[in-house]
Here is the input.
Amino acid sequence: MLTISKENYLKAIYKHREGENLPVPASYIADELQVSNAAISKMAKTLSNKGLLEYQKHKGVRLTDEGEKFALKVIRRHRLWELFLINVLGLTWAEVHDEAEKLEHSTSEFLINKMDKFLGFPKFDPHGSPIPDRNGKLPELPSVLKMSECEAGKTYRVARVQDGDSQLMKYLTRIGINLNTEITILEKFSFDHSINVEMKGHHYLLSEKVVDRIWVADE
Amino acid sequence: MLTISKENYLKAIYKHREGENLPVPASYIADELQVSNAAISKMAKTLSNKGLLEYQKHKGVRLTDEGEKFALKVIRRHRLWELFLINVLGLTWAEVHDEAEKLEHSTSEFLINKMDKFLGFPKFDPHGSPIPDRNGKLPELPSVLKMSECEAGKTYRVARVQDGDSQLMKYLTRIGINLNTEITILEKFSFDHSINVEMKGHHYLLSEKVVDRIWVADE
DNA sequence: ATACAAATTTAACCATGGTTAAAATAAAAA
DNA sequence: TTTTTATTTTAACCATGGTTAAATTTGTAT
Here is the structure.
């Protein structure tokens, strides 16, 4: 069993490029985990000695197959907890992330499989993120694009939002954005990359920060 | 927020004498937490400096009001998790303790209150142990006696069993002992303190270990 | 009252996962 | 190509929560 810190390192590395297993710069991990770069260097060695990372000085780190396996386990636990907390206990989009962030480190394989079954072996979590199955296999991903790359004039359906920022989640909830919400792109402003949209009869100006954290699919 | 270790110390101390707040010998805690006596001495100082324990060298430790408050919070989380895991996810008596032991340290006040509400503000957990409410108040305790102190010839109803030993839980489940099971005391053997009982038409010889971990009430 | 045994505490040590500050390396600009 | 800047690594350090072994205190017999 890995410590909480180690699980978080592997998860952070995985999250950098979800699918593609490219080298991740130390500073990204430091930022993600809110620790110093020095801590990253040290842990990179430790995890590399355990065979979970490939690490070359000054070149960032990369998950080994073994490391990715562990990362996917943590992500599985996180996403199943989020779904569980929303479906069963009625928590909100804004509330689940922080709770799941803690619970994911205290959940046995046995328990998470019970939860998985209870939930009907779901393939996606409440943010539209794929849930690895008990063997670490991810479901096939729907083809999505970032809202920041949408075409003006077209209408899309929200397919996924980035989890982690409860302020953002609260905002999205407040203005009524949810999975599968239909959004029409009215106008894209290049000077600040904000986008003017129409949704359920209302207009909203969504900032770059926001449109960069929403993925959509064609209706 | 207390660390997991500190929460476990306070819980272990509380568990020594549930209600009465008597000094707890170091060796009891060491045994309970599976750490050395040296670790206990050191932590006793730490927690005493934090105002959670009264500690006099060689005289054991005692929870302060503040310390008891924290202990009850941990116990509340533990017991609500046990009930939740059994009621919602269908875990067994033998399975819940170890899972709850981990989850209890990763559950926010917010989440545990949601669970409490979801469960209908239960007063007792699946082992018959009282669940402190959100203010740390325990429900009124039914009058029970240890099975080892029962009278031969009388019939009782199981009111509570000691949680923690999954082997024991498995055994009790296997022979059909559950909360509210009716048991008639047939004969008490003084040489090894075992007890011969009748239950659902079958006879069982329960060892001292077993009868010391079951509390019963008059039918 | 004294000696012995048991329990407890202290001392010295260790691993983990952090920190800051300085040194080294890589990347970018001149 | 050289210099400057940004990133990464190393070194020295710290807190936490453990360990074992030795010293001390307490309780129990004799």
In short: Residues 25-27, 37-38, 40-42, 57-58 of chain B lie near DNA strand C (CB under 10 Å from a C1'). Chain B touches chain A at residues 85, 88-91, 95, 98-99, 102-103, 105-108, 110-111, 114-115, 118 (CB under 8 Å). Residues 65-87 of chain B form the longest helix (23 residues). Chain B is about 40% helix and 15% strand.
